[in-house]
Amino acid sequence: MKVEPWVRVAIMVIATLVILGIAQVFTGSPLPKEPREAIIFQNALLLIVLGSAILEHHFTKPADSVINSLMGLITLSSVYRAAPTIPWSLAAGYCGVVFVMSSACVAASSTQPLTGWRTWIGKHTYRPSIVFGRSRVLFSIVFLSGLWFFYSAQEPVTVALILFWGLFLSLWPLHIPELITSWFQKEVPISMSRGEIVRIDNPNISRVVLDGEAKWTNSGPKICILPDGQAHWMRPIYSQFQEGKLLGTGLITALKMAGISGKKNSVFDPPKDIECPSEASLNQALGGGINAIFVGFVVERSTIPAIRFETVDSDSCYDGMLVWVSIKGKKVYYQITSGETSEESFAGDKHGYQVAVAVQLGTLEEGEGFKKYDWLPSMNTPVFAASPDHPLDINAIREGEFCLGNIPMSEIKVGGDFYAGYNYHTAILGVTGSGKTELAFDLIRHSVCKGLKVVCIDLTAQYEGKLNDLNPVDLSVSQENAEKLSEKLFEVETGKYGAGDEKKALAEFSETLRDDVAQAIEQFLTDNEGSGLGIIRLEEISNTKATLWITELFMTCLLKYARENPENCPKSLMVVEEAHTVMPEPSAMGLGDFDSRGLVGKIAQIALQGRKYGVGLLVVAQRTATVSKTILTQCNSIISFTCYDDTSLGFLKNIYGPEHVAIIPNLPMRQAVAFGPWIRTKRPIVFEVPYDPGKDTNV
Description:
The chain is an alpha+beta fold. A nine-stranded mixed beta sheet has the order 20-21-19-22-23-18-24-25-26, with helices on both faces. A six-stranded antiparallel beta barrel has the order 2-3-6-5-4-8. A six-stranded antiparallel barrel has the order 9-10-13-12-11-15. Helix 2 (about 35-55) packs antiparallel against helix 6 and helix 4 (about 85-110) packs across helix 5.
């Protein structure tokens, strides 16, 4: 309800007289001259009264915070020598910080539209400025500081001042000004109806038959009078023709209008002398919050895992968009994964509209991420999204955890404690150019920083150059030994029946090679002062069986050392790039011989056992069809960039569910779906890796 100006003036006058009276009783003068008394009576309390009743009766602007903080500094400067140094410094420091923040916000916002660094400054200073710089907060701190400086808790003046301060501030949350306004407010009759309510769908969707001159747009609210005679503010949504009549659809809010009378079941334009609620007030009344935008309302066939909502603006939604609804007073977040067109019949006329499908992420807790919510919203519940000028900025992961990226068009970070869950095995999938390898590089850097020993099997010749800043150790088999291995494998394949001599020679050579690999692995793992990254280059080995053989050698030696030295072996992560080459699905790769099948099976068994001995696995691949399913099914965390083939999508459907799989082929570059134990979400989530011009994402 609008508070009449005379009520605010009356509150200011009465409060001022009370302050003067308290000053007269305890100081002998209504206007104390001594600085320690003036800081409390003349400045702090009067400024609280003036700011609350007159200057900021709607809301605080950053410019108001500039003035408030400056006045606070001037007030405190008058008692600089008389006040205790440390308490005075704390109060003055508070005012100084608010002054700097609010001044920066005003300066950055002076040019519209906001771009570049102005956007960053405005976003990070706006909320702190208006919250910490409002009169009731800032001058209350100055007032309480003055009491702390100069009075003890037992003095009668302290009790009187605290009582006045507390009673005055309680007027506003208790809505006393609105109550006083209602006592003297005369009922205003409204006679010019703009439409008749013909249907109300629970809980707040109304259908209105409009007259020919009615304007039904989102530009301003309407007043509706319900069957019980109560007047509410209504938000128009859209309109369409029905049998030659204009039918409007609107949302009835919980904001009531006292002192309004008119025909029941009717909708009216607000009178010119009535102050309409702001867009923020309407959204807040509907459960969205101050900086939210209304994007639709829940429709039929919604479920607990996913809701369907009718959009109010065909251009306002997109894949991966974060939306939320209010359920039992809690914000429950959803992410749009698909959309479709639909239509509704009104007595033979059809209304076409768009329906978005959004999968539940759950409630969002600071530092904990998303938690599942156990129910679904009611039909017609309003759906909201963040305003483009005020993207959601909630710290969903903890400091020091790995950040995969942000939810699209928001500042909410997606990620989690990879260090704690590295041995649950992770797979990164996606076509060439989607950004999977760059994400793998980031995970490797994070792992090394956290103290993991990382061994990379690289067939792309990129890892050494891209990770050169980590001073990687070259663990590769020498070119000479690699060629010898290829020759002996070829001799076994082409030898006489049984190839007994050739196999014996291969076994002798492999034992020598195994000893060299074991020594290199042990030296790398036990060197606490050296690099945490080791790279095994296989790009020059053309023989597929030799590649498998060397991969098995390194994995076996790493696992053997970890198993035999549980106290001394550090936590280790094996990274496998182009996994379809070293961990292939035998049938897909055409590996018909038993030796190759045996090697793949052995590699898979090593991967299965690695978790028990502190060895994790990071698999990077383009397609699931060509990677060993035994290994992929052991990867509890899956991160998928764009994929197109049916085999990959079929595999991912078992991980993510059909809703998220539908979005994967349409993901733009640097966007992916993630789900797993170390990622702070209980459901799959779409995220976007921030663009970094210094990275080459064509990998």
